[in-house]
């Protein structure tokens, strides 16, 4: 007689758990509050679906900021190469882009969703959409079923909790998995936003709203000996800063929650060193002393940003190079290389790409994804205290842990 399995949450981890369980001769019921599977998966990569990263397993572990070593077994059981082969063998061609990011050739996340829908259907997984689980039922310290919101009960031999974190709550990630785990006496590591925009205290930041920079280096001093740095695109907003470099920086900062209100430094032109910028000003001054300082700056940075920097430094934006004092020239260069801002915490977790924190890995068997406290209870994906940088790593973690949970449940 087939074992019966309930998977709660039809995101990447839940989908893969349901597929691997069904392929290992189990009767599977996949439950989700949404009307379709993979709602969050559909919006990843700007709707293009950055499904994984074409790198080594060791690099995925290195890019995982919380409990990366816990993933060693899962990633070796179902690697990024296994995932790529699985998707392509089911009719969706993939491509590798900048920094190893993997996308469907079509640039359509729907094509990825269609692959999983087809495989779920072929494996006769029972889908219960628009359905909410109220609690996980236990008998003799072993999972025995789930109670639905309408009080109907589904009896089963095992349950996989793959409900995601707290980010994107409008897509169904509302922390249900933490409640289920907590009710069953599991410890929940403090929930924090990660890969999230950063609020800035300085009021003038709103004047830069909409300005974007292609390459910025962000640095925060953690202690006398430790600094964290991120480099990439940055966007100024009405509340602070966003963009890929900022999201990555927030992931590092979230590991040091005590410094959320801290000083950060923006190198607006990391591809120029101090001496090179001094040389630019010196040469321009020699050949055309009547040229406006603002004109020199706008060859390097957006016009509105240049105006604001000069305003902050109390330097007339219409001053000519020949009139600029050495002191003011140094002030401009120093500000470009280290614009100082004060963080005012992160944006709300509902704006985060992923959730940091979750069910403690100390209470999960990394070889099977089964709870060490409750027989028949398994966890997969973002609900666990694991989070990584952007680039397809978080999705790979979800698929790998979901695959292992599905095999073993």
TrEMBL record:
It comes from the Bacteria. Residues 192-354 form the RsdA/BaiN/AoA(So)-like insert domain. InterPro entries: BaiN-like, RsdA/BaiN/AoA(So)-like_dom, RsdA/BaiN/AoA(So)_Rossmann. Residues 4-406 form the RsdA/BaiN/AoA(So)-like Rossmann fold-like domain. It holds the Pfam family HI0933_like. PANTHER family: OS12G0638800 PROTEIN (PTHR42887:SF2). NCBIfam families: aminoacetone oxidase family FAD-binding enzyme (TIGR00275). This is NAD(P)/FAD-dependent oxidoreductase. It comes from Alkaliphilus flagellatus.
